[in-house]
Amino acid sequence: MTTSSDRPKRTPKSLNATTLSSKYIESRASIMSKAASALKFRRKFTFATKDVTHWFPGHMMKGMKQMQSKLQDVDLIVEIHDARIPFSGRNPKFRDTLLVRPHLFILNKMDLADLSNKDQIEEQLRKEGVENVMYTNSKDGHNKTIMKEIVPAFKKLIESEDRYNRAQEVDFNLMILGVPNVGKSSFINAIRQTQLKKGGKATSVGAVPGITRSVLERIRVCNRPKIYVFDTPGIMNPNIKDVEVGMKLALCANLKDHLVGPDVIVDYMLYWLNKHKQFDYVDHFKLSAPTDDVTLFLAHVAKEQGYIEKRKAVVGGYMYRWNFDAASAIALRAFREGKLGKVMLDTNYIHSKVT
C-alpha cells in the first residue's frame, strides 16, 4: 500500500512578480464586481442645487466677437477639445464659424481618455461634419513626435483649399478655439518649443478655466513654414440644455469648481464611475468596497488625509468636523490626473448615436 509519504511531491510552479500582480488584479476585480452586484447604484444623477446650464461670462461674448473679426486673417481653424468628452460641450457657434475656413479637430489629453472606441468616435464626428481629427497630449514628453506631425498637417489642410484674400501671403495664420481649460495654451507652447526650440511660455497656462480672456496678438510657433497662431479665450456653449453635459464639463475642469460645488462634482464622479463599473477609486482611496454615498466617501478621504476643520460653535467653544472641501479637491485632482483610470465620459452618447 502506498502511503502519502511515498507519493512523488509536485514541484510548485514558480510565480514571477507579473503573474502574482495579474492574479491580484483579477482577484480584486472579482471582489469589486461581486461588491458592486450587491449594491444598488443610482441609475440617474439628480442635480438640484445649482444651475450650470447658463455660464457665459462677459469676456466670453467679447472673445467670440474678437474671433469673428479676425477670421479674414486666418488660414486654418484648430479646435481643441477634451478627449474624455469628444462631443459634450462643443460650442455650436464654432460650427458656424468653421464653415468659412479649413478645420482641424484635436482631441487633447489623450493620455487620460479611454480610446478603445476611437473608430466609433470618429464615425460620429464625421456625421457632425468633422473630417480631420488628431490626438495629442501637450504635457507629455513623448508627444514631440505628434507635435512634429501636426505642422505638416497644418500645411496640407491650408493648401488644400482656396486662401482667398490671403492667397499671396507666404505665412500661415491659425486660430486656436476650444472650451475653457482644455489645453489650448499648453498646445501652443508645446508646438513652439518643439518647432522653435524655445523654452518658456509664449501664452499663459493655468489649471483652472478662464486664464486667457482675450484674443491675443499673433504668436510665432514655426519658422519653416512661417506659422503664427491666435490664442483665444475658452468659449462655453451659452445654453447647455443637458444637465449631465454640464456635469461632464465640470468633472473635466472646463467649468470652475465653485460654480457647481466641488462636493456635487465628486458626487457625479462617484455616480459615473459606479455606473460604468470603474472601481479603481476603491483601491486608490483605500476603501473596503465601492460606495454611492458621497458624504461617507468624503468623510473617509478626509479621515485618511487628516483633514479636519475647526469652527466656532453657536453655543460657544469650538467644533471639529471633516473638511469636505479639502477632501473634494483631493478626489477631483485624482480623477483629473488619471489616477482613477482612463475614462470616456461620452460612451453612452457614442453608443446611442452610432448605428
From TrEMBL:
InterPro entries recorded: G_CP_dom, GTP-bd, GTP-bd_ortho_bundle_sf, P-loop_NTPase
A single cellular component GO annotation: mitochondrial inner membrane
Main localization of the protein described in the UniProt heading: mitochondrion
Record-level GO BP terms: mitochondrial translation
Subcellular location: Mitochondrion inner membrane
Pfam families registered for this protein in UniProt: MMR_HSR1 (PF01926)
Topology with respect to the bilayer: Peripheral membrane protein
Keywords assigned: GTP-binding, Membrane, Mitochondrion, Mitochondrion inner membrane, Nucleotide-binding, Transit peptide
Superkingdom assignment: Eukaryota
GO molecular function annotations of the record: GTP binding; GTPase activity
Keyword Membrane belongs to the record: yes
Keyword Transit peptide annotated: yes
CDD domains in UniProt: YlqF
PANTHER family assigned to the protein according to its UniProt record, in alphabetical order: MITOCHONDRIAL RIBOSOME-ASSOCIATED GTPASE 1 (PTHR45782:SF4)
Role according to the record: Plays a role in the regulation of the mitochondrial ribosome assembly and of translational activity. Displays mitochondrial GTPase activity.
Record-given protein name: Uncharacterized protein
